[in-house]
What does this fold into?
Amino acid sequence: MSIFKRMSTIFKAKANTALDKAEDPRETLDYSYQKQLELLQKVRRGVADVATSRKRVELQASQLQAQSAKLQEQAQKALSMGREDLAREALTRKSGLQGQIDDLTTQHAQLQGEEEKLTLASQRLQAKVESFRTKKETIKATYTAAEAQTRINEAFSGISEEMSDVGLAVQRAEDKTLQMQARAGAIDELLASGALDDASGSQKDSITLELERLSSTSGVDDELAAMKAQLSGGSAPKELSGDPAAPAAASQQPATAPVSEPARPQDGDVR
It folds into this structure.
């Protein structure tokens, strides 16, 4: 197969596919019905033309018959007056008119037969057109219902063109959202690990964070020791209520302070 033949086949196939998508059966049925109506109108016009011709022949035949009857009277009158020559001339003319009348009669019969045939064809065609119209409306209604049902099913299943576009848009939005979330999480991890520097200066390095964590843990331990001292001794050291840094100093002292005995008076003391 030559390349030109293949190209021709491809073009024909694509054109056929495009025409099949663009074709609406309802429009095709309406067009066919319109053409049938035009054909029926032509047949009816033909019947009317034949009937008009038949009527014209009938009028001509009637006129010739009237002339023939008049010539017959004139011939009788001339013969009664002894004018045999005039009577012969009148009868001769009557004979010529009779030939025309016979031709018109034959033509009238042919036209009448043609009119009957066209009338019968018109009636049959009209019946077919009416039947086609009923079938056309039924097919159109069925096609419309099937089309609506198909669109509803496609909408529910999500395979219609409109719903596919919406689904693709939602999918793209979800993909972009996941991508942004992943990027934000990755940047947070890099900032926390120190791989990236925070331009705002709010991000602390790992050593600073470790020192702050140890300081916080020591403060908690000191406060816990002070609370234990209060529970066991009954009163908290004075340093705890004054200086905020007192818990750290208090943690260096023993949990309970020794109670000293009152001094006894010596012999030389004044009582």
The chain has two domains: 3-157, 206-250. The chain is about 80% helix and 0% strand.
